[in-house]
Amino acid sequence: MNTKHAFRGPWSIGRVEIQNRVVLAPMAGVTNIAFRVIAKRFGAGLIYTEMVSDQGILMKNSRTLIMTTVHPEERPLALQLFGGDAGRLAEAARYIDAHTDADIIDINLGCPAPKINKIEAGAKWLLSPERVYDLYRTVRQAIRKPLTAKIRLGWDDAHRYYLELAQAIEEAGGDAIAVHGRTRAQMYEGQADWRAIAEIKARARIPIIGNGDVRSPEDARRMIEETGVDAVMVGRAALGNPWILYRIARYLEHGERLPEPTAREKIALALEHLDELIKLKGERVGVQEMRKHAAWYLKGLRGASRFKDEAQQAETREEMRRTLLSYEEAECIETSLA
Questions:
Q1: What's the per-residue H, E or C state across 145-205?
Q2: Annotated catalytic, 332?
Q3: Residue 276: which CATH number?
Q4: Which residues form the domain of 154?
Q5: Does one domain contain both 203 and 308?
Q6: pTM of the entire structure?
Q7: What residues does the DUS-like FMN-binding domain cover (predicted)?
Q8: Cystine design at 176: which of 2, 13, 31, 43 (Cβ 3.0–4.6 Å)?
């Protein structure tokens, strides 16, 4: 394998050029525009939106349409759709193709949530490669933008159709596939199967993005070495820690090991994230959504447990700011006395 090519950008999905090998995963309730712009600033070469309902788009639901807004700073961006019907997904994709600045249209074929699977969407597609072929052929005919997929290895160990799924997507006109190395039954437990990802990559003529158990720059390099994927997708490791995106990009490009962020850096970014969420969703909802992010920013920091509990009770911007700043002050005092 040409390691210089494997670790360094740029690379392309269709006609969309991507500057490095680090991709931010789509995460429901997380990768809204506030988080995505931060992630882009921290070095993600390609960013995915949280999944957007095809029905919401077709019904012109105002909340759904807001989710399709693309900030110029976050491009290139893949806008992810979900749904259980090929015709409706094609119509929604046609709308995204014509009316948004998304660079790539992605279809979620891996979400394990029961409420999504109940409508034949997400991971439910994994049970039928034939349906997936028809889906991608239908959507491909409806749009001009690059079309991609995010899949898992299968529904469960008895239904691991990942090779058939990847072949169906490619033959029907898909331009790239992101592969999470777990089944739907595994959810997010157990170890991701990188060997299966390598099998897909070995047979594919389109770019393959590897996803699962990339928690450090070293993990990212090892995934590329072991699977040959074109890029690595980072999800949960970036929660409260977008620095991981920059650290991975620098390590892959230059072999440079950058330090973890300091507590002060984490608090400063959390405060910025808070204000961006409020700008996006208003104070009440923005603060509510910031509660989980505050817990992620504080995770692993010494003496942070009490402040994480306080953050979960915050109702206003001022209460959340006071909690975060109180931790910073306490941490600084403790550090100076150490």
A1: CCEEEEEEEECCCCCCCHHHHHHHHHHCCCCEEEEEEEECCCCCCCCCCHHHHHHHHHHCC
A2: no
A3: 1.10.1200.80
A4: 3-254
A5: no
A6: 0.93
A7: 24-324
A8: 13
